[in-house]
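Per-record layout

source: Manihot esculenta
name: Cytochrome c oxidase subunit 5C
length: 63
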Amino acid sequence: MAGGRIAHATLKGPSVVKEIVLGIALGLTAGGLWKMHHWNEQRKVRAFYDLLEKGEISVVAEE
């Protein structure tokens, strides 16, 4: 009693190398965007303290 060969669909799984490269690319992109946001916030804070030091603005409310 010989069993016949059954044609199975070959499942093609995700490429591990492709997923690693995609993960690295997405990580670097997200990290770059976060750093640009951080640098922008630093620039705003630095400008605020520069104006405060020059006396052009004050944190005390005028009466």
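summary: The two ends are 102 Å apart (CA to CA). The chain has a mean pLDDT of 88.
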